[in-house]
Amino acid sequence: MDLVTLFVIGVTSLVSFKAFNDRYFFDRFKFNIAGIERGEQWRFFTSGVLHADLQHLFFNMFTLFFFADEVIGSFNSVKFLIIYLASMLGGSFLSYIINRNNYAYSAVGASGAVSGIIYSAILLDPSMRIYFGIPGWIFGIGYMIYSIIGMQRKADNIGHDAHIGGAITGYLITLLYDYNIILDRPFVVGAMLLPIIAVIILIKMNKV
């Protein structure tokens, strides 16, 4: 495991554990529409190092551990960190756009950042095997479809909109860093673009 991955996991875990036992700290730095409207823009980032509970933290950090090496190996640690942080911001920004009229809306978690790393890793190696041997690019499309459905239903407490915002950000930055991916794997790039287009259409139609 690269040192930058260890650093991200370490910082996220330490801050999350701090917040588990300090409700004021948790409320001060979680993603919250009312807080952002008061000018507390730091919440776009700080919410990404907070988690609701130990299970939430473990799942996100384990997933990051699984996909991070592909991105770091293909690019470098600095570009990995840029994709991670930009995807965190992208996830929070989409959450803000969709929920901006709901001042009670709150969320925490590194899911947006991790989703960006997932999508980046899959673009870099579409044939990588995920759970039960599923090819990475199929997993990526399925992940986005699941998030779109969840975003529309709003029947659970999962921040599906942050997943999508992070995935879109990771997708775009990865292609910006290595545009040859478009020439080498046009089918995969196009297939993973379709659910992104679907999200944009749904937002334009006010269906989410």
UniProtKB/TrEMBL annotation:
It is a multi-pass membrane protein. It is found in: Membrane. Its main location: membrane. GO terms for molecular function: serine-type endopeptidase activity. Keywords: Hydrolase, Membrane, Transmembrane, Transmembrane helix. The chain crosses the membrane at residues 42-68, 80-98, 104-123, 130-149, 186-203. One of its GO terms (cellular component) is membrane. InterPro entries: Peptidase_S54_rhomboid_dom (IPR022764), Rhomboid-like_sf (IPR035952), Rhomboid_protease_S54 (IPR050925). Residues 39-176 form the Peptidase S54 rhomboid domain. It holds the Pfam family Rhomboid. Belongs to the peptidase S54 family. This is Possible rhomboid family protein. It comes from Nonlabens tegetincola.
